[in-house]
Structure formats: C-alpha cells, structure tokens
Amino acid sequence: MTTRLEQQFAFLLEAEKLKSVTRATPIHDGSRPENSGEHSWSLALYALVLADQAGHGVDISRAIRMLLLHDLVEIDVGDVPIHAQGGAAHDAPALLAAEAAAAERIFGLLPEDQGAELLALWQEFEANETPTAVFAKSLDRTQPVLLNLRAGGGSWEEFNVTLPQLEARVGAKIARGLPEVWQAVRARILPWFAARERL
Amino acid sequence: MTTRLEQQFAFLLEAEKLKSVTRATPIHDGSRPENSGEHSWSLALYALVLADQAGHGVDISRAIRMLLLHDLVEIDVGDVPIHAQGGAAHDAPALLAAEAAAAERIFGLLPEDQGAELLALWQEFEANETPTAVFAKSLDRTQPVLLNLRAGGGSWEEFNVTLPQLEARVGAKIARGLPEVWQAVRARILPWFAARERL
Ligand SMILES: [Ca+2]
Predict the structure, then answer these.
(1) Tell me, what's the ipTM?
(2) pLDDT tens across A71-98, in order?
(3) Which of A123, B59, B70, B110 is the most buried (most CB within 10 A)?
(4) Chain A residues with CB-CB distance to B147 below 8 A
(5) Please, what CATH class does the domain formed by A3-195 belong to?
C-alpha cells in the first residue's frame, strides 16, 4: 500500500468517530439525539436540494464538500448547542481555539497537499465570508429548526427558547444566506412559539 | 412559501427517516449498528478523500451527489445485507422492483424537474455502468469492509463469511472501480480471515 492511501484510510477511519458525537437536536421522530455524522449528511443533502435558493457566487459542489467536513472538529471538541448558556457558549474564544487545533490534528492525518486543501475549506466555512460559506452556514442553521419543529420542540424545550431568541441566534444567520427560506421556516415555526406564549 | 420550497422541505423531512434504517455493519467502536444516513455521509467523504483513486471519466462532484442519495430507497425497503441468504438476497428481482418504486415515490416529492434529475442520478448509480457510478459503487463496497475490520469482524461474524465469499461478493466490485484500494484493503483484512481459518 502506498503511504498516501494509508494516510487517507487513517483519516477516513478517524472521521467515523463523528457518528458518536451527539447533538442537542433530536432525529425526526424524537426517539434519540441526532449525531454529527448523520447531521452532516442531512446538510449536504440540503445543499443539493436547495441549490436554487443559493445567491450569486455560490458553488454548490464546494458547499457540499464544506458541509461534509464542517463538523469533524467535534470529534475532539464535541458539539456545543447553539442555545446553551443563553447562546454565549457557541462562539466563545476558547471553543474556537480548540476547534482550530482539532482541525489541524484531524486534517493533518491526510497527505500534506490534501490536508491543506480540506483545512482551507473548513477555515472558509468558519470564516463565513465567501458566498459559498454563507450559504453553507445558513443551511447548518436551517436544518435543526425544521428538525426541532418536526420532533415537537426538541432543544427549544430543553433550553426554553423564545421566538426573539431564535430570531437573533439563528434566524438572522439563516436569512443572511437564505432569505426566502427563513421567511418560510419562520411561518412554519410561529404557531409552536405562539401556542407557548414565547413570542 | 412557494410550492417549490414546500416540496423541497417535504422531501428533506422525508429523507430524515434514513437515520432510522439500520445496517448489518457496526459503527467504528462496535457499540451499535450503523444507520444508512450516517453511512451515506461516510461514503460521500470517501469519494472526496479518495478522489485521486478515481479512474478516467469519473466526476467526483457527481459521485458525491450520487452517494448522498443512493440509499434513500431504504426508507421504504430497508437495508438488505450483502451477506444475507448466502449473498442471494441483495440482487433479487423483487427487491430491485421495490427499490425502483421507492425511488419514484421519494424523488416524486420534489418539484418535477428536480425529482427527475435526482431519480436519474439514482438510476445511474444502480445501473453501475458509467465511470462515476462504478467509482461510487466501489466506495459503497469498500467502507463496510474497513468498518467491519475495525469493529473486530462485524457482519462477517454474524454471517460466517469466508475470504473467498468476500472476494466474490465484495472484492470484485471494489476492484472494478478501485483496483489499488482493493489490493490495500485485502492486505489489511487477510490476517482476520487467516486467524479464523476462513481462507
Ligand atoms: Ca454544526
């Protein structure tokens, strides 16, 4: 076996661990928490299906690759729910530093040229500046909202989320890359928050 | 909300059910069966990482899309393990017909143009004739072998698989699209079968 293939196998076997990282969002029927591996699959499918919602300059194939990789750092760091600690935990500097170190380690398992390429893709996603990254990030915020609603509340129950909180933490980020999608999602979730007097 | 977006949401929410379809292969640590959603994520990542193993005429972005979709029919039909019934169950005509009907139903949830496009992509994968489909199918056979080995045997234990059986049912299909990968995988799994006198 070539060393190159050995390194690629090592990376792919390491990546499998993402299936054991659990998230705050339940799967569709509420029976268990979603894991970050299957979450990444959902998001790649969202990018494929919602391609016609993408703004100018979005490269869909690149967005799909980004979404396949975007959560690998959670193998080392875990998933930090967006509604934990009143929304403050998710973008804490210590967390961002730990994620950056995890990315160096995990993509560092690959052959050097390939590791650098995929690390750059992850960094582009995190920086959230290019049209492709903004589209991908917006999808990453959309899917848990639809899943929570489908499961009857999911992590909104656990963290006592109100609609204004959701709009600030999540809605604004969805609207940045997917304005029409956010309008549609907001209309869908409104009755859930209205029924609980969390408007 | 536009009808188009409603149809896309309906498809994406239906697709979530793939996370509840379990496979014969365990996840990396052997703690539970893999589900077909996270399996699809793994395969898309394999296509991305093993792109330099692809033969002439393979479109990697198309292979990734194919692999994201390839198991959706299991929402209706379930996963049929490749080693069940001595390998006979997997390509039975009744199963293939049920999968085709499932594809019509599931991709039929999408807007007509998009549903037709993704159905054609699934059919291309199933036909296993284009270089892209052969590459994708070969990956679909590779990942469970590496996972079984990593988990200490996995579905090879359950179905009493020998190396000649594995070579016939799986190895030949891997070698068709990924000859170098099959050589490397075969070298890795040989000790497991040798230790059990299943050569
Ligand atoms: Ca995420």
Answers:
(1) 0.95
(2) 999 999 999 888 877 777 777 899 999 9
(3) B70
(4) 16
(5) mainly alpha
